[in-house]
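Sanity check

After download, print the first record. It should look like this:
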Amino acid sequence: MSVIDAIGDTPLIRLTRVTEGIAAEVLLKAEFLNPGGSVKDRAALAMVSAAEESGELRPGGVIVEGTSGNTGIGLAMIAAQRGYRAIVVVPDKSSTEKIKTLRAYGAEVVITAGGVTREDPRHVSRVAARLAEETPGGWLAGQYDNPANPGAHLATTGPEIWRQTGGRVTHFVAGVGTGGTISGAGAYLRETGAVTVVGADPESSVYGGGDGSPYYVESIGHYVHPDTVEDVWPQSYHPKVVDRIERVGDRESIAMTRRLAREEGILAGASTGTAVVAALRVARELGPSGVVVVLAPDSGRAYLSKYFDDDWLRRAGFPAPPVPGPLTGDGPVVTPLVLAADATVRDLAAGEVAVLVLRLPAGIEAPPAPGDAVGVVAATELAGARPDAPLRDFARPLPSAGAGEPAAEALARTPAGAIWLAVLTDGRITGAIARAALEAE
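Expected C-alpha cells:
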C-alpha cells in the first residue's frame, strides 16, 4: 500500500452544533482527510493515471499545472511517489501555507500575478501552458478542461456518498471552482437517486450571477477581470448538473469557517464555510427526512495565516476580536465617490474625493473590491486641470486599512508617499481616510 491508496473513502461527519434548530440531517464529507489535505487528491490521481495510460505522461516526465494550490499539492504528492518532477504555477494571492506545502513535496513553485486578464501572458493558465510546452517531458494536467477531473468524482465521490448514507441522501451541496467535484459527484447522485444538487458560490462569482469582482475565499468561484475579452468557463464544470446555486458573502463564509473550528472541532478552509452556509440554508427548508451532504474541500491548516488570523481579518475589515485603538470608521473617514477608471476632472466636484475603479457594480449596489481600485484622487489636487483631463492621471496609489484595525498598525505598513488610505469593511472599500487624519488618531 502506498500513500496514493489512502486517497478517497473519506468519512461523513454529522454536524451537531451549527445545525441547532434544523430538523434535517446535515453530514459533512471530510475531504480534508485525504493524504494531500484536499478533495483535489482525487482529481490529481485520476488525471495522472489517465495521462500515463494514454502515453502523454512518460517515466521521468514533468507534471505541470496552474492552480490556486490544492490540485498542485495533490499532483506534487503523486509526482513524489511515482518519481516525476512537478512544476506548479500559483497566483500571488495563494496562502503562504499552500506554497510551503508544495515546496515540501519537492515541487518547483512559480508564483505569478493574480487578478490579470485571461489574455495576459502572466495569467496562471498561460504560464503553466508555456512551461509545459518548453519543458522536456512536460505534461500539462489542465484540471479546468480535463475530463478526468469530473470523472474522478463520478467514479468515487458520488458512489461513496450514496453508499455511506445508505441511499438516504436527498441533497448534495458543494462549491464550484473548476466544477469537477460538483459535476461528477452531482451527476452520479442525480442519476442514482434523484438527489438535488446545490452549488455554493461566492457572492461576486459569475457562476451564481455575480459581477466577477474579487472575493476573499480561495479555491472556489469564478473571477473575471473587467478587461478580459472573453469569459471562458471550465469544461470540467457541467452547469446542467446543478439544480440551484446559493450565493454566499465573504463575511458569512469566513464566520462559518471559524465557527466550524470552535463549535464542531472541524478545521477547514473558507470554501467549506461557504458550502456549509449554503447547506444550512437548504436544510432549513427540509423536514426530518431530509439528508444534506455538504462537501468540505480542504483543511484549515492551509489558511492559518488568513481566515484564522485575527490581524489578517482586521486588515481586511472583517469582524475580529476588538483591540485597543481601532480605526472605527467614525470622524475623519469620508465616503468617496466611486467613479470608473475613465472618469474625467469634470466628474469630480469641489471638495470631493473619488476612488477610481476598473468596474462599477450594476447601479453601484455594492462597494468596490480593492482589486478593482485604480487609485484615489481628491478635488483639492486638481487646481488648473482641464475639465476633460482623465482623473487617472492624477490618481494616487490607494493602500488600505481595515475598519477595525488599530491606526498604528495600518500606518506601519502604509507606503511613505501615500496620502489616502481605503477603509475596508468585509473586504470592500466603504470609505477613505487621509493619512494625516490617521496619524492624528
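If your output differs, re-run the checksum step. Summary of this record's structure: Residues 154 and 232 are 23 Å apart (CA to CA).
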